[in-house]
Amino acid sequence: MAYLAGDIGGTKTHLALYQEEKGRMVKLKDEKYPSQKYPNLKTIVKTFLKGEDISVKKGCFGIAGPVKKGKSQATNLPWLVDSEVLMGELQIEKVALINDLEANAYGLNMLEKDELYTLNAGDPEAEGNQAMVSAGTGLGEGGIFYDGKRHIPFASEGGHADFAPRNETEDELLRFLRKKFGHVSYERILSGPGLYNLYQFVVETKKERETEENLKKIQEGDSPRLISEMGLSGASKACTKTLEFFASIYGSEAGNIALKMLALGGIYLGGGIAPKLLTILKRGDFMRSFTEKGRFSKLLEQIPVHVVLNDNTALLGATYYAKHII
């Protein structure tokens, strides 16, 4: 039996075809497509499956956006995706549509130990709910409920909740972003575009000086990538300051989620940004902000925190869901 898995994001759509062989899932094909260049998901899937002489029985797509009754209006794409329509047009027996954070969380079941980096070991016997926070094109957040025997992921749109400043500098950041966007969510900071928003704040409020050459390069290029590279290498003090701000606010929001979900079993950092900024996350600002929660600081110190290193985790989770859930 063949399974079709998809990770649908605002930047790219990643599809893979798996087949079960002797109890193992073997990848047959794997392609990435620029989401914005296609009118809908159906077109991408048909392109992906063209020429494949294999019968796909089940498919599951993790999508960046809320899913209601098998339908989703993607958050960062002009697509309405409908699982019933996909079943009919693609002639697949069963198709499920789940939130991308659910897919990532289900993917944890298929990771090896070396595909996680532990920022905080916490309590070695930690047990209970878990949660995932994933900064990438957007900010995804999801819970993983523990029923005493197994962990069950569920979606949320917590990344769009109000940004809560913790000090005068972050008060200033909130005012800066409010002028640009009106409503300021955590996603306006903890995402690829958010990195650029933070960088603009650092430069325009003179938290750190920037050269005209660097400024122009970042404005005209792939801003998130350049800010990360120049910040990590030390080529730009403004970029380094941006990454430090990012890590601190990321840690604070991860701590917020840990409290809201009572995620005593662990926090997982998914998405594409955390693995790239591991050097910054390891410096201490992330975990300091994670645990600085007043009377609950000691509790948070005991929570394990892991960075997911496998960037195919959502695909693995979609495959897991297709095989075990639908």
Oligomer: single chain
Number of domains: 2
CATH fold-level name of the largest domain: Hexokinase, domain 1
The level of helicity is: 25-40%
Ends distance: 14 Å
Sheet with most strands: strand arrangement: 8-13-12-9-10-11
What is the second-level CATH architecture of the largest domain?
3-Layer(aba) Sandwich
Give the C-level CATH assignment of the largest domain.
Alpha Beta
Unreliable residue stretches: none
In what range is the share of β-strand residues?
A: 15-25%
Q: What does the main sheet amount to?
A: 6 strands, mixed
Could you report the average pLDDT, rounded to the nearest whole number?
95
Helix-strand topology string: EEEHEEEHEHEEEEHHHHHEHHHHEH
**How many distinct helices?**
13
Structural class: alpha/beta
How many strands in all?
13
Structural shape = globular
Which features would summarize this protein structure in a list?
5-stranded mixed β-sheet, 25% strand, 6-stranded mixed β-sheet, single chain, ATP-binding, Hexokinase, domain 1, cytoplasm, 13 helices, Nucleotidyltransferase, domain 5, alpha/beta, globular, 326 residues
